Every structure is written in structure tokens, then in C-alpha cells.
């Protein structure tokens, strides 16, 4: 697998995303996977809130509360951060960010799946492709370990889960639960190469990747539903169900 990041100028609020892609992506090949950070999609889609007082934590907390589906009050965190759920992602501050942008809180796209589907269709038409993947990425933390990793907020053009259930392990025992999250695995690699600070590389192309089942259609409702674990069925339910969740404005 090869991951190649690509530089762009600073993307501004209201820029044309497809012009950004056209100018700064290479000629995409069959079986490539294009990864795009959620921040530049949010900027291009005007998914921003103007910052009135950057030093005001209450101002940002109000935005997070409005944008999250569920949230935990910031006083629960020693860092005064809000643990939230949005778009089936357990995230800090609903993914809202003010780094690498001036004067705005940048939100996640309102409908990440709709956004990524549109990009996938544009890539196919523009480059005459039959098999290409797209991932809308962001960074996230994971419990009990420092550091951020990439995650896929949405995907298109390939099957997000490789189901290993029913297959034998090395000793012939049947796998009972294992499914490989292809979309998140690819996002981790791409986000690592794109960087987190001043690299100015919000695009990446993954090529020569194995184990990806490309598709000629947008993800179906069933395929998207297969990615979701209901809270009561989650292995982390004993922790998550005891949290003091409150409904946010996006619920």
C-alpha cells in the first residue's frame, strides 16, 4: 500500500471543493482511494460558526452542544472538554475545531455521506473511472492511550467491512465476531501521512492497496446500517450506558 499526501493552498470558507480537487489532486487511477479531510469539506460547504471570543470556553461549549447528538457536560472532564456522539462517532467536542483556520469554528459536514457520495460521482465522471474509493476523514482520540489517529466519517465506492465471520483461524476454529473496518483502517494510514499541524496536505491518495472490495454504487442503507452498533449491543456498553448523556441540538 502506498499513501501519497497532496498540498493545497489554505482553503477558505465558500471555496469550490471540486476546483480544489481538480487543481491539486493528480490524475486518479483505477482502484485508488481518495482521502479528504472533513475540515476542507466543512469550509467549502460553509459549515462554520464565527468565533466571537476565542478565549470563551462557554461560547465553544454552546456550539458543541448544538452540534452534537449526545454530549456530556464539560465539567465532567479535567480538561473542560465535552465527550460527544455524532454521526456514530464517539468524539471530543463533536469534531469541532478551530486549528489551522482563522476566525471560525469548523464543523463536520451536515451530511458526510451525501458529501462523499457527491465526490465519488464527480471523480468517476471527471476521470472516467469504474473503481475508485473516497473517504471523508478526521482525527480522533482513543480511550486509555495518548495521541490521535484517523477515522472515516463516511466512505463511498468500496465495502467498508470485510466480514471474517465463519472463516477459520490458523487452527481451523471458526471466527465468530471479527469484521475488519476497511474504511477506518485506510483513514488511519492516510491521516498519519497528511499530518496534524501546518503540513497543508488535506488530500491523500491510497494506491496499491489489497483487500478492498470496490463497488459500482453508493453504499446502500443496509451496508451503512451494518456499520452501526446499537449502544446496548456494544462491548463498551457497561461504560457508555452509565455516562450522563444529554441530548444535543443534532439529536
Q: How does the SSE layout of this entry go?
A:
Blueprint (H helix, E strand, L loop, with lengths): L1 E5 L10 H8 L8 E5 H7 L3 E3 L6 H11 L2 E2 L11 E4 L2 E4 L11 E3 L5 H16 L5 E10 L2 E12 L4 E3 L15 E3 H13 L8 E5 L13 H5 L11 H4 L5 E2 L4
Parallel strand pairs: 2-8
Antiparallel strand pairs: 1-12, 2-12, 3-7, 4-5, 4-13, 5-6, 8-9, 10-11
Descriptive account of the structure:
The model has no long low-confidence stretch (mean pLDDT 95). The protein starts with a strand and ends with a strand. With 251 residues, the chain is an alpha+beta fold. The longest helix is centred in the middle third of the chain and has 16 residues, at 112-127. It has helices at 17-24, 38-44, 57-67, 112-127, 182-194, 221-225, 237-240, and strands at residues 2-6, 33-37, 48-50, 70-71, 83-86, 89-92, 104-106, 133-142, 145-156, 161-163, 179-181, 203-207, 246-247. Strand 8 (133-142) and strand 9 (145-156) form a beta hairpin. The strands form four sheets. Strands 1-12-2-8-9 form a five-stranded mixed sheet. It has a four-stranded antiparallel sheet with strand order 6-5-4-13, with helices on one face.
Major sheet size, sense and barrel closure:
5 strands, mixed
Beta-strand percentage range: 15-25%
**Spatial strand sequence of the major β-sheet:** 1-12-2-8-9
What's the shape?
globular
**How far apart lie the N and C ends?**
38 Å
Order of helices and strands: EHEHEHEEEEHEEEEHEHHE
**Radius of gyration in whole Å, from Cα?**
19 Å
Question: Count of helical segments?
Answer: 7
| Mean pLDDT over the full residue set | 95
Poorly predicted runs: none
* Approximate helicity band: 25-40%
Content-based structural category:
alpha+beta
Amino acid at each position: 500500500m502506498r499513501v501519497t499526501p497532496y498540498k493545497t493552498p489554505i482553503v477558505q470558507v465558500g471555496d469550490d471543493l471540486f476546483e480544489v480537487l481538480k487543481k491539486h489532486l493528480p490524475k486518479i487511477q483505477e482502484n485508488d482511494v481518495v482521502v479528504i479531510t472533513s475540515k476542507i469539506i466543512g469550509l467549502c460547504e460553509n459549515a462554520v460558526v464565527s468565533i466571537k471570543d476565542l478565549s470563551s470556553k462557554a461560547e465553544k461549549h454552546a456550539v458543541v452542544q448544538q452540534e452534537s447528538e449526545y454530549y456530556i457536560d464539560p465539567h465532567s472532564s479535567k480538561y473542560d472538554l465535552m465527550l460527544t456522539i455524532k454521526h456514530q462517532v464517539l468524539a471530543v467536542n463533536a469534531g469541532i475545531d478551530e486549528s489551522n483556520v482563522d476566525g471560525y469554528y469548523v464543523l463536520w459536514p451536515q451530511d458526510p455521506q451525501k458529501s462523499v457520495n457527491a465526490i465519488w460521482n464527480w471523480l468517476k465522471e471527471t476521470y472516467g473511472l469504474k473503481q475508485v474509493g473516497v473517504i471523508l476523514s478526521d482525527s480522533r482520540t482513543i480511550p486509555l492511550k495518548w495521541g490521535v489517529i484517523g477515522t472515516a466519517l463516511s466512505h463511498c465506492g468500496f465495502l467498508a467491512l470485510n466480514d471474517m465471520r465463519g472463516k477459520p483461524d490458523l487452527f481451523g476454529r471458526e471466527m465468530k465476531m471479527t469484521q475488519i473496518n476497511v474504511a477506518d483502517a485506510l483513514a488511519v494510514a492516510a491521516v498519519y501521512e497528511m499530518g496534524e499541524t501546518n503540513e497543508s496536505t488535506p488530500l491523500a491518495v491510497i494506491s496499491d492497496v489489497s483487500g478492498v472490495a470496490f463497488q459500482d454504487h453508493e453504499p446502500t442503507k443496509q451496508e451503512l446500517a451494518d456499520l452501526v452498533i446499537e449502544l446496548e449491543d456494544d462491548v463498551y456498553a457497561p461504560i457508555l450506558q452509565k455516562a450522563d448523556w444529554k441530548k444535543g441540538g443534532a439529536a
